[in-house]
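Hey,
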Amino acid sequence: MENEPSSHGYQKKNEPISSEAMEWLNKLDRGLRSNQISEQVENIVRFKDLIHQFPIPIIVNTSLLKLSELYKNTENHMIRYWIMSVMTQIHPTQYWKVFNKQELIKRITFVLNNNDSTARALTLKILSNMALIIKDRIDLFHKFVFCWN
């Protein structure tokens, strides 16, 4: 069986994902769909712990895509603030573990088209932490310039 590098050394390529990690991820996902903002925020903050505890690509990918989807679809500044807080506390190299980088970027940058200056400011803060994966995206640089005008 081939080995591939992971943050904890080497992991077998076809090794099953920890059931604990998947259970934790499912619980947080249910919390994100709650109607109570306090419960949503509590679960958003726990994503950081999940990613630090299980820094394997499938968990990082799924977690960040779930957070970015919520970030894109919500109008609530408090929810967006906490998502920004979590996404900026994640080490920038973790973004390399995302399989769907383009989808992650698309969901986050969608908010740059918003007329809400607070939402755009939070988005720029997230994107600053994602600099390693967006550094070659000229279209984003044009959007940044547009946001500052």
